[in-house]
Design goal:
This protein has 846 residues and is an alpha+beta fold. It has 24 helices and 24 strands.
Length: 846
């Protein structure tokens, strides 16, 4: 029995041992399977979390352009790549999904890398377009679904293995307790086996608990990271209520985490459009509904607790669990106040640049230093040069320079000046071919990444012309001042010489051999007087006695004289305007103009030709026409068919003493005299000439309007009467002239009073006992001028006749408003006949 029992016990022991061994093997297998399932589950969850982290970093970078978001992505990718081979070699309950996972994960990583690389290349829009295709989202969904199925099956298998291990362990303990007495010999061995299995079970449980602890630590580390980053982060639950805020978010919103917890996100995160001030819609709704990442619009502002507004930008993304279900929203944003201010400053600066450049009235452009190609031009340059903006951008600086100046341009730009500088003048050419002068101000700058220069071109053509005119005027003025300065003394000397020579000649008999020398003296004095008059006419310092007249009368009266003067080889044609307007001018000076121009034309037509004198009415409606002020003019033109003049000669023809004739054929004062008379008469003179095509001089005198002074009695039209013993008061500070005039008048039968000073002359006029019919006074006198002498004399004797004489026309008295330029005037030097004619004319007019 004992043997049976023993046999049975042994058999039972053997059976129990065998069963325990088999159960131990089953327990080990279950434990190993449970451990493998646990590792597979942990590895799958870890890959899923890393993929979510990598995708969040990608989305953050694509939406904000901030490379900081790539930090988590760059950490997650290597870990994912290291985990994929482990998944590939592990056995799983769902081998099909396990086999598909590496390919799906690799595809997802490739999609993330492609979008990030596209964004880093500067094409964020293309990268977002790749994201919007949904390819990555689809891949991620397939990964989630595969992981979900695999994890569900692994959980089932894990539970099966766990249940099996627990069941085998329980059975082993029961059998050990039932047969404890029988298996005493085997108790130590069985207990050891049981303890060993128990330890293994406890180790498995410890591993599971450690896994849960690591997960908790990861969540804590994530929370710490979110609190430490520089951007504001708000996380919500699945209902859009605030669940987490980092310190930056607390600072920007003005809410603490405790205050915001549980509140709907729009209450804490109140945003609106900066321009329209309209509230923006709740972004959590779109994220929770569609599971998409939403970027904030430009010009979005956050209203802090208390009312202050802060410009912000960034994005909101869904939070997904292991099954891909949306469990909340994470919102990342930042304060962009400084960036917005810098952007506005940049926009304002660009606007000011466009205004200063495009609206500048001066021609401006930007050109590339190396190629001289235009990079930008303003409207003023387009208008001045005649090219369109598109044409300019296809040209270089060489295209606006005359061909002969291109080499000088390239030499000047070969070594670029790196500082602001001004140079010129340079010749530029417009599209029409017109050449003009400019002054250049240039400054180096960088334009669209190229070395360039900003240029302002100032058209100085008119300034150069005015400067040249000023130089010419100054030269003419200098000669005029010289002529006026010597006129007084020189004319006084000539008056004495000419007067006494005439008186001496009159006293000599025709047979007297002294008549010839006296006549030569008189001729020389008259020639000197004529030269002085020409100088005064040129310098506009002669006394004019203008009247209202028709230029047709002057043309007709000089026609016969011109026929004798020019000779038979020259044909004279007159083309007068039928209804010519009157002008206000000195008729003698007009005749002088015609004679001087005719003589100049004669010298240009040595082999004969045609001289044409025209008169015409001209109305100038714009100062552009003929370069004259607006108004009505009478034009007197004298044209010839002679040799003509080149431009250099034309530029100097009005200079005194300039002549192209050989020595002895002219003084060079003819045209200078014409110029002076025209300018003193308020007119303008224009010249048109070409070599071999003749010349044409056009005189423009203003049309006479309104009342004009009546012409004074002159030596030509006066009717001299015989002297009747009239008393003439002579006022002259030069004793020689005073004695000569007194002698001429006395020999003519007049009574003469010749005091030495102007004061004595005035006292004589105030003496009622004296009979005085006429005052002959010099204009320029010491202490008191002739105008004042005449004024006081006429005040004492209202019927007193007055005759002025002077050889110095620059004196300020002659420019006073009170001086009557139509009054009787005798220009020094004068002849006895001219003196007596003027005196007789004044006396006859009383």
């Amino acid at each position: 029995m004992r043997r049976i029992w023993l046999t049975a016990a042994v058999a039972m022991l053997i059976a129990i041992a065998g069963y325990s061994y088999l159960d131990s093997l089953a327990f080990r297998e279950a434990a190993a399977g449970a451990e493998q399932s646990r590792v597979l589950i942990e590895q799958a969850n870890r890959v899923h979390r890393l993929l979510v982290t990598a995708e969040a970093g990608q989305r953050g970078y694509l939406l904000t352009g901030d490379p900081g978001y790539l930090a988590d992505y760059q950490i997650a990718v290597p870990r994912i790549q290291a985990a994929v081979p482990l998944l590939a070699i592990m056995k799983a309950a769902d081998e099909e999904d396990r086999a598909r996972l590496p390919a799906l994960i690799t595809a997802k990583l490739a999609e993330l890398q492609e979008t990030i690389r596209t964004g880093q290349n500067g094409d964020s829009a293309e990268a977002l377009a790749i994201v919007r295709t949904g390819r990555g989202k689809q891949t991620m969904q397939e990964i989630r679904e595969a992981l979900t199925r695999m994890l569900e099956r692994e959980n089932v298998r894990f539970r099966e293995y766990s249940d099996s291990a627990q069941r085998h362990g329980f059975q082993t303990r029961v059998l050990a307790q039932l047969f404890a007495l029988l298996l005493a010999g085997f108790i130590w061995f069985s207990g050891r086996r049981i303890n060993r299995l128990a330890n293994e079970q406890e180790e498995l449980i410890a591993v599971l608990q450690a896994t849960r602890a690591r997960d908790a630590e990861g969540r804590a580390a994530l929370a710490t990271t979110l609190r430490s980053i520089g951007d504001a982060v708000i996380a919500t639950d699945a209902q859009g209520r605030v669940d987490f805020m980092n310190p930056v978010a607390e600072s920007l919103t003005g809410y603490s985490s405790a205050e915001a917890a549980g509140r709907p996100l729009p209450e804490v995160f109140r945003i609106s459009n900066e321009d329209s001030q309209e509230l923006s819609p709740d972004i959590t709704a779109a994220v929770l509904r569609d599971g998409i990442t939403v970027g904030l619009a430009n010009h979005t502002v956050l209203s802090r607790k208390g009312g202050q507004s802060i410009p912000i930008d960034d994005s909101a993304a869904p939070i997904l669990d292991d099954q891909g279900k949306i469990t909340g929203v994470v919102l990342v944003f930042r304060d962009v106040t400084q960036r917005r201010a810098a952007q506005r400053s940049l926009e304002e600066s660009a606007s000011r640049y466009r205004l200063l450049f495009e609206s500048n009235p001066q021609c401006m452009w930007v050109y590339e230093i190396g190629t001289l190609r235009f990079l930008a031009v303003n409207e003023a340059a387009i208008a001045r040069y005649g090219y369109t903006g598109e044409e300019f951008l296809g040209m270089t600086l060489r295209d606006i320079r005359p061909q002969e100046d291109v080499a000088l341009l390239e030499q000047d730009t070969r070594v670029p000046n790196r500082k602001l500088h001004t140079d010129g003048p340079w010749r530029h050419r417009s599209k029409s071919g017109a050449v003009f002068f400019v002054e250049i101000t240039a400054h180096p700058l960088h334009f669209d990444g190229r070395s360039a220069k900003l240029v302002m071109a100032t058209d100085i053509t008119e300034r150069l012309r005015l400067e040249e005119n000023l130089r010419q005027s100054q030269k003419l003025e200098a000669v005029g001042q010289l002529a006026g300065g010597i006129a007084h003394d020189f004319n006084n000397l000539l008056t004495v010489i000419e007067g006494y020579a005439e008186m001496l000649g009159g006293e000599l008999t025709p047979e007297d051999e002294r008549r010839v020398p006296v006549k030569e003296i008189l001729t020389a004095a008259q020639r000197a007087a004529s030269l002085t008059r020409q100088l005064l006419a040129f310098s506009r310092r002669q006394i004019l006695q203008p009247i209202r007249l028709s230029l047709n009368v002057n043309v007709q009266s000089t026609h016969r004289m011109l026929s004798r003067l020019l000779g038979e080889q020259i044909e004279i044609e007159a083309e007068p305007e039928a209804h010519l307007w009157d002008v206000f001018a000195d008729p003698g000076q007009v005749d002088q103009i015609i004679l001087n121009l005719a003589v100049n034309a004669r010298d240009a037509m040595e082999r004969g030709g045609t001289l044409t004198i025209r008169t015409a009415n001209v109305s100038i409606e714009s100062s552009v026409d003929a370069g004259l002020p607006e108004g009505e003019y009478v034009c007197l033109s004298v044209s010839d068919t002679g040799e003509g003049m080149d431009e250099e000669t034309q530029s100097r023809i009005f200079e005194p003493f300039f002549t192209t004739k050989e020595v002895g054929r002219g003084t060079g004062l003819g045209l200078a005299t014409v110029y002076g008379i025209v300018k003193q008469s308020g007119g303008h003179i224009r010249v048109a000439s070409a070599v071999g095509k003749g010349s044409s001089f056009s005189i423009y005198l203003p049309r006479a309007t309104g009342a004009v002074p009546v012409a004074a009695v002159t030596a030509v039209d006066a009717e001299p009467g015989g002297p009747e013993g009239e008393v003439i008061l002579v006022v002259e500070d030069d004793a020689n002239i005073r004695h000569m005039v007194a002698s001429m008048l006395t020999h003519a039968g007049y009574q003469v009073l010749a005091p030495e000073t102007p004061r004595e002359a005035i006292d004589l006029c105030r003496d009622a006992a004296l009979k005085i019919e006429m005052l002959l006074t010099d204009v320029v006198l010491p202490e008191i001028d002739g105008l004042e002498v005449a004024k006081q004399a006429v005040a004492a004797r209202p019927r007193l006749g007055v005759l002025f004489m002077s050889g110095y026309t620059e004196h300020p008295v002659l420019r006073l408003p009170g001086f009557d330029h139509g009054a009787p005037f005798l220009h020094k030097p004068f002849t006895r006949a001219a003196l007596l004619a003027k005196v007789s004319g004044v006396l006859n007019a009383l």
